[in-house]
Amino acid sequence: TVMPAIQFEAPASAFAETVTVVKHYTDRLFMFRMTRPASFRFRSGEFVMIGLPGEKPVWRAYSIACPSWDEEIEFFSIKVPDGPLTSELSKIRPGDTVWMKKKPTGTLVLDALLPGRRLYLLSTGTGIAPFASLIREPETYEKFDQVILCHTCREVAELKYGFEITEAAKSDELVGEEAGVKLVHYPSATREPFERAGRITDLLRDGRLAAELGVPLLNVGEDRVMICGSMAMLQDCKALCEGAGLEEGANSKPGHFVIERAFVG
Ligand code: A2P
Can you give the residue ranges of the FAD-binding FR-type domain (predicted)? Predict the structure, then answer.
């Protein structure tokens, strides 16, 4: 006999949604999409807590990887073999249930930045997730003349999601025309041969990015920056921004750059 699956009821603070798509990129990375509750609103770039149904669910912060107008909700996740959430989450299939807390939040939002000409989106690994949202957000292109999506990973296969979301933005009905002109994808790999090698911090610091893209060095007059990655990456990027005279912003006090730690496990 087959045991009936236990049905857990989601807490009042959470939605229970159905997985629609799962795509694995490497043995460490995957994306999934799920249904969107009608009452759920968020600003592009925000994160939300997600968990799996259970008696004592493990909740983790996940950047929402689709724009605020999307019909579904998308996430881009790491898999940690013994991670309390990701070891289980990486096994989900279409039809499964994922819980999502009702209140999104975060600092990687356009409201936290002062007006500027150029927007740098600096990411490593799964830190690209909030930018998958922002590069498909019309307001991003209303506010900036150029949007430079930087993504550094160890291996080439880890960069694939960035190519896909860039392609999706450029062929999008809503933002495709603007993204086609303004969006630049700037990927680099550090531990495998690739057309561009090195950390984004080095590429910015030594002027390689500026030379390749024909833009001036990072400057407070024109540039605004959003940063998402590991703790060490955030610190280095923050120092780089501050070295160029940029000041950190927040929802309550917009500035020249904002930072947020990528989901870790
Ligand atoms: P590297 O291979 O030189 O360490 P991780 O998996 O350790 O978070 O690293 C993901 C990517 O981010 C790697 O390409 C790594 O480069 C890069 N990286 C790690 N630390 C930093 C940092 N402090 N600043 C910029 N990039 C970093």
Answer: 12-111
